[in-house]
């Protein structure tokens, strides 16, 4: 699996995929974080069996993006899919890959920078990645 930008429109990638992962017991599992930006009224939807910790990530991610000097894509429906959807994913480790995917999809960060990389990490409200 590799990181790929999926669709470009008017200088924005709009849909973007980044690898991440989580743990089941002592076993690691690969998770694809897909983000699509759809011009519409502002909303943020996470699919792919997100647990409560992931559903709470919306505000952490928005604050981290804005407090890091980037623009949160208002006037867009942000759709996040955590694949595969066959198992529940939980925890704050998906904050960083979701935020990076939003920045790449909105054209604020070059999508090619993430080729061959995976990302995991919880974001602080000021944009720091927590250890």
Q: How does this structure look, described?
A:
The chain has 131 residues and is an alpha+beta fold. The chain has a single domain (4-122), classed as Ribosomal Protein S5, domain 2. The chain is built from three helices and seven strands; from the N terminus they run ββββααβαββ. The chain has helices spanning 52-55, 57-67, 95-105, and strands at 4-9, 12-24, 27-39, 43-47, 76-83, 122-123, 129-130. It has a five-stranded mixed sheet with strand order 1-2-3-5-4, covered by helices on one side. Strands 6-7 form a two-stranded antiparallel ribbon. A hairpin with a 5-residue loop joins strand 6 (122-123) and strand 7. The longest helix has 11 residues, at 57-67. Residues 1-5 have low confidence and may be disordered.
Descriptive key words:
3 helices, disordered N terminus, 131 residues, alpha+beta, two-stranded antiparallel ribbon, Ribosomal Protein S5, domain 2, five-stranded mixed sheet
Shape: globular
The radius of gyration computed from the alpha-carbon positions, rounded to a whole number of angstroms, is 14 Å
In total, how many domains does the architecture comprise? 1
Helix content: 10-25%
Instruction: Give the strand order of the largest sheet, numbering strands 1, 2, ... along the chain.
Output: 1-2-3-5-4
Q: Give the H and E element order.
A: EEEEHHEHEE
Topology-level CATH name: Ribosomal Protein S5, domain 2
Give a quick account of the main beta sheet: strands, pairing sense, barrel closure: 5 strands, mixed
Number of helices: 3
CATH architectural category? 2-Layer Sandwich
How far is the first residue's CA from the last residue's CA? 26 Å
Strand content: 35-45%
Total strand segments: 7
What structural class do helix, strand and pairing data support? alpha+beta
The CATH class, by name, is Alpha Beta
Mean pLDDT value: 89
Low-pLDDT stretches are: 1-5
